[in-house]
């Protein structure tokens, strides 16, 4: 606090002429021209009365010379110095009594306490106890001082109770302003003011206290905006195109706020109170869009608003091509600004988009009444508008005709074929080619059939059916007749070969008379001739109204009756398993007419085991050895007990076999060119016994007038199903299983009735290489010729049980044909490593201990890459139990039935991680072919070899260790 010293004249009156009066304060010496009323130095004051001024002094009245005040709040110590102050009395300051400190009164000095008070320039007067009153000097209370404000902030709307603490507030008549606005005072003490904040602008505002004209320091009070709140929005939904008037209700929704819906500003159209705001809905889309209100940096709680779901009113057009590309226009509401359009669940590319119109490009597809859906921010359109792909339409077929056997490629052109379906020709399904199916073109294989103007129809996978165009199978065409002549009495068995005979309902006429058909295929008709007139007669085939060309058959009138038969005996005396077959036979004419030997041929039917070419010998013939000839014929088909026959023919010089005459013995002999052994017990024509007896398994034929040979005695063996079957035998020549060589003899036997090309076969010997060194092999000897074989080593990845390598033998084209019932003979090979280190053969998959030749199914044989003998080694993974992931029982399905060519394709399901045996058999259950495949997928296609099988119906069985399934397979 600063002290003030006021110096008073010592004399009442005096004449001053420029005299300066020196006043010395208790705080030091000095001089000043300062006004005593305004001096703040508190050190030395002086004044120079004007010349001529008069000072008056009253010597006996109390006189105050100076006052020393420590400026501050009430209670400050104040000292008065002067003269004639007496010993007691009163001191008043502005009319209020100031208490005197005990012992603080003397004639020249009084010490008292500043009473509570306020205002400036208050008179200080001493009244002695005798009633004498001193002169008056002025003193001021210090201005108010604000130290703190509690609270320091409040809402801009005012009404906050604010406490000001500090000093010199006085006891009344104070004024408080906040931001220049009066704040009502509810409580006042010298050290505290309680006021109520008035309404004020947001931000920091100065608080000032004024007491009797004295203004305090300034302290800030911060007005804060009131936090807005949202309680409701009405309506709660609206169009994606915007424009809907929305009313937001809540509190503190003052002007200047910003409303957003889904992040987009919604223009405020009216704000009529702190509790309601009207906005214009902006464009947008989606559910649960956040509604916000922000004012002066304060954000209200959020509400949620839903844009309406899209509604499709119409689509134009409502149909289109399956190839897609049609421009489709959707009209409706609430499409938003972006969305996804699907047709039948397939996305349609958008080319134009607005709230009420969408244009898309129709995707490729097929189906009818497919739902059209617009999805906007997860909201799906609610209307049920449907789109249909156009029905398939066939415009052309090329070619429009084809063979009854089928198999030719037919191309259909048109529109809206879709991506899948069925093509039928005359109601029969046509299989697809590799070129397959497109929206405008289908390529299929003509099924076998017959007829004219048959409807060709496309049925798409969605059930829509096309128009029909006509297709006509080709008319029958006869190429040849065998034999070309026969007796006028009829009964001749004729074979007509050609094309387009169909499979049923054919009619054959010979000389206008119907011939009985006993067998019919697309390329062959077997008929029995009716009786007819001698000479050439036209043979015509009619099928479904289509008439073939005509070919002549010559009827020959018999000159007499001849009945030729064969008698035989076993010329080998019961030896059935040696290296020769010794048929001994004689012809007997039991008829009434002689027969020229030259018109006769005789066939002895047998199976040529170990076939290596047949040599035939006439050892003796009573009618002349040089007049009988033998020719071996290997048949293309397999017969019961025969894969060929030796045909006896006679030279014209042999003359005639007279009525009731015998030819006499004809002793013959057959042998393999390599003198390998036969087994006669399964030969069709073999008959045991040492005496002549009729043998109707030896057939006799007569050729008349240049025609075809006619069967006149015996019964030909029946054709049997072709069976492709092999065995592999091995003989280990190495008694030391830990030597540095593998030495094994191999042999393949064709135990089926189908010859195959050697070059189509490969054979694998599986072993472990026992090291990293490369392996070499040698074929020391092969009965079939070592030059006809080749080989190569192949590594196995991953390693299989007992094998990380196999030696694959192949056969060169020079090896020729592997005959049915034939054998390769011994193939002697060795294998050794480049570093000549030892093998451990006992853990080799194909190893067998040293022993004579025996079957070894751990050596595998392949025909055209398909396993036909043996069992391949498996990995440890394949040795695990079959997968439990199979979705159902074993299923097989033929892909293309009837099968064409030399193989069929079968689809196998639900046999994952299992070996599957595929067994092909005829309808009597006789096994034709067997192969083993491995299913490394739940659905996999496998190929079944059909080599050697003739057209007809077969049974295909798929067998796993746990179940089996059989289906019928037709080969064309």
UniProtKB/TrEMBL annotation:
Signal peptide: none annotated. Residues 561-718, 722-874 form the CBM3 domain. Pfam families: CBM_3, TIG. GO terms for molecular function: cellulose binding; semaphorin receptor activity. InterPro entries: CBM2/CBM3_carb-bd_dom_sf, CBM3, CBM3_sf, Ig-like_fold, Ig_E-set, IPT_dom, Plexin. One of its GO terms (biological process) is carbohydrate metabolic process. This is CBM3 domain-containing protein.
């Amino acid at each position: 606090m600063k002290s003030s010293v006021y110096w008073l004249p010592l004399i009442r009156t005096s004449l001053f002429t420029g005299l300066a009066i020196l006043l010395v304060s208790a705080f030091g010496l000095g001089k000043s021209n300062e006004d005593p009323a305004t001096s703040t130095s508190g050190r030395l004051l002086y004044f120079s009365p004007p010349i001529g001024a008069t000072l008056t002094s009253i010597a006996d009245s109390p006189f105050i010379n100076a006052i020393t005040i420590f400026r501050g709040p009430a209670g400050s110590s104040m000292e008065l110095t002067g003269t004639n102050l007496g010993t007691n009395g009163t001191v008043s300051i502005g009319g209020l009594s100031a208490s005197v400190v005990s012992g603080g009164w003397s004639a020249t000095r009084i010490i008292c306490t500043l009473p509570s008070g306020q205002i400036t320039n208050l008179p200080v007067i001493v009244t002695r106890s005798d009633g004498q009153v001193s002169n008056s000097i002025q003193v001021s209370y210090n201005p108010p001082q604000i130290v703190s404000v509690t609270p320091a902030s409040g809402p801009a709307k005012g009404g906050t109770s604010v406490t000001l603490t500090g000093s010199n507030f006085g006891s009344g008549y104070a004024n408080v302003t906040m931001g220049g606005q009066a704040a009502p005072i509810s409580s006042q003490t010298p050290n505290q003011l309680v006021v109520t904040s008035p309404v004020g602008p947001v931000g920091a505002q100065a608080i000032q206290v004024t007491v009797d004209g004295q203004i305090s320091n300034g302290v800030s009070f911060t007005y804060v905006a009131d936090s807005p709140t949202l309680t409701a929005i009405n309506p709660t939904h609206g169009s994606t195109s915007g424009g809907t008037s929305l009313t937001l209700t809540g509190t503190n929704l003052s002007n200047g706020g910003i409303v957003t819906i889904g992040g987009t500003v919604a223009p405020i159209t009216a704000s009529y109170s702190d509790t309601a705001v009207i906005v214009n809905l902006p464009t947008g889309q989606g559910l649960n869009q956040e509604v916000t209100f922000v004012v002066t940096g304060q954000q209200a709680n959020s509400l949620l608003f839903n844009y309406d779901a899209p509604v499709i009113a119409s689509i134009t057009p409502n149909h289109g091509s399956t190839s897609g590309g049609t421009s489709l226009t959707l009209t409706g509401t609430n499409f938003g600004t972006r969305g996804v359009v699907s047709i039948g669940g397939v996305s349609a590319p958008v080319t134009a988009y607005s709230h009420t119109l969408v244009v898309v490009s129709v995707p490729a597809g097929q189906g009818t009444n497919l739902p059209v859906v617009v999805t906007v921010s997860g909201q799906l359109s609610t209307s049920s508008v449907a789109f249909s792909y156009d029905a398939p339409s066939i415009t052309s077929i090329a070619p429009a005709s084809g063979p009854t056997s089928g198999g030719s490629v037919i191309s259909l052109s048109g529109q809206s074929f879709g991506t899948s379906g069925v093509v039928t020709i005359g109601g029969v399904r046509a299989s697809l080619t590799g070129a397959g199916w497109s929206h405008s073109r289908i390529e299929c294989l003509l099924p076998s059939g017959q007829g004219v103007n048959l409807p060709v129809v496309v049925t798409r996978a969605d059930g829509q059916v096309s128009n029909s165009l006509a297709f006509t199978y080709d008319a029958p065409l006869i190429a040849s007749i065998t034999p070309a002549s026969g007796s006028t009495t009829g009964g001749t068995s004729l074979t007509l070969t050609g094309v387009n005979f169909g499979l049923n309902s054919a009619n054959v006429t010979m000389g206008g008379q119907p011939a009985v058909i006993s067998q019919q295929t697309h390329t062959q008709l077997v008929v029995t001739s009716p009786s007819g007139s001698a000479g050439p007669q036209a043979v015509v085939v009619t099928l479904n109204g289509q008439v073939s060309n005509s070919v002549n058959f010559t009827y020959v009138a018999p000159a007499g009756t001849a009945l030729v038969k064969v008698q035989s005996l076993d010329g080998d005396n019961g030896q059935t398993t040696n290296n020769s077959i010794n048929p001994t036979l004689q012809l007997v004419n039991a008829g009434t007419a002689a027969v020229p030997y030259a018109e006769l041929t005789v066939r002895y039917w047998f199976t040529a085991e170990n076939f290596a070419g047949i040599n035939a010998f006439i050892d003796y013939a009573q009618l002349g050895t040089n007049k009988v000839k033998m020719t071996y014929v290997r048949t293309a088909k397999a017969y019961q007990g025969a894969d060929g026959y030796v045909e006896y023919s006679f030279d014209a010089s042999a003359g005639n076999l007279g009525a009731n005459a015998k030819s006499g013995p004809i002793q013959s002999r057959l042998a393999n060119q390599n003198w390998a052994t036969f087994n006669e017990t399964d030969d069709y024509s073999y008959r045991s016994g040492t005496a002549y007896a009729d043998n109707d398994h030896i057939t006799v034929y007569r050729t008349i007038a240049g025609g075809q040979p006619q069967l006149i005695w015996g019964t030909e063996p029946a054709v049997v199903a072709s069976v492709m079957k092999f065995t592999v035998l091995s003989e280990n020549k190495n008694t030391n299983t830990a030597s540095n060589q593998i030495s094994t003899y191999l042999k393949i036997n064709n135990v089926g009735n189908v010859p195959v090309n050697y070059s189509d076969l490969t054979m694998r010997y599986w072993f472990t290489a026992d090291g990293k060194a490369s392996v070499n092999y040698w074929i020391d000897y092969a009965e079939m010729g070592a030059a006809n074989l080749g080989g190569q080593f192949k590594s196995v990845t991953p390693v299989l049980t007992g094998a990380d390598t196999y030696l694959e033998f192949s056969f060169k084209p020079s090896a020729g044909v592997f005959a049915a019932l034939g054998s390769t003979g011994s193939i002697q090979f060795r294998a050794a490593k480049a570093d000549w280190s030892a093998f451990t053969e006992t853990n080799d998959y194909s190893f067998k201990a040293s022993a004579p030749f025996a079957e070894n199914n751990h050596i595998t044989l392949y025909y055209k890459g398909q396993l036909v003998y043996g069992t391949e080694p498996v990995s440890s993974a394949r040795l695990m139990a079959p997968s439990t992931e199979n979705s159902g029982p074993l299923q097989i399905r033929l892909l293309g039935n009837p099968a064409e060519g030399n193989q069929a394709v079968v689809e196998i399901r639900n046999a994952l991680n299992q070996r599957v045996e595929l067994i092909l058999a005829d309808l009597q259950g006789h096994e034709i072919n067997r192969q083993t495949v491995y299913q490394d997928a739940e659905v996999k296609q496998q190929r079944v070899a059909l080599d050697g099988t003739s057209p007809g119906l077969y049974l295909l069985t798929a067998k796993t260790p746990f179940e089996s399934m059989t289906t019928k397979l037709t080969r064309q």
